[in-house]
Amino acid sequence: MSANTVAIRSAVRNALTDCAAGDLILVAVSGGADSLALAYALSLEAPKLALRVEGVTVDHQLQSQSSVQAEKVVAALATMGIEKTHVIKVDVDITDGLEASARRARYAALDSCAEKTGASFVFLGHTRDDQSESVLLGLARGSGARSLSAMAVRNGKYVRPLLAITREETLGACAEAQLDPWEDPHNADKTFTRVRVRHDVLPNLEKNLGPGISAALARTASLLRDDADALDQLAEQEFAAHDALSLDISRLEKLPKAIRTRVLRLAIYEAGAPSGSLSADHIAPIEALITEWSGQGPSDLPGGVRVSRISGRLSLSR
User: What is the pTM of this model?
Assistant: First the structure.
């Protein structure tokens, strides 16, 4: 057994420690090397713990013959002993770019499949390469620590065991297992920002700054996630001490900005803003109502939320 396969199986084995005998695990498979290697490792490790594994592949219907690729995934998983694979066709409503819209449709499909099947976890094949790309994309957007911390190994029912594994290792594992990975044509289309980061930006950084950039970026993400988790916890404790829709400004003024802005986000989401809809540009005028007060009027935010300063308090309404 090669070092590639050993590393992947070890990562998967560690990720299964939270599972109980009889649990159903879904493994999301596109047919690429990363998800195939993950499925293969699960097919070997899960039965040892009396765990059930089923596949799920999402057909975005964005390419001709996409249904053929879905059938290939079903066949590949069957050769591993994963006899049931859910094929879910989705219609991608492109509202904020193809990548983001397809991702949203994909996760909605995975959520629905997990609920219908009663799966305890959904395993995803993101690798260290995906992690480093996400950090660079966050830097380009000027994002904060939470965004730069990229993906977590465990996020609710979603599990990403391969975040310390490279794409090169998954390709090696597939070759050893005689699996034939599919290369999504979108992965070579440089109209997508992530593809340019993968093929142009990261190789250029490796060339000019030296090898190990991808690992360093992934390590940075892990460190920032620890920081962001600690700040989020402090913000949640502070938010619990306020009236959710009427925040005491004198108390907010005394907080470090990193915690105060998190409290503001919690309050705005509590008031009805859609999850994930707030940017730094949304928070800045709300922060100014506290720290740069000069009689300015209310601010209107996503979800119809309005924030006003009234008698020493921030009032949130819809």
Answer: 0.84
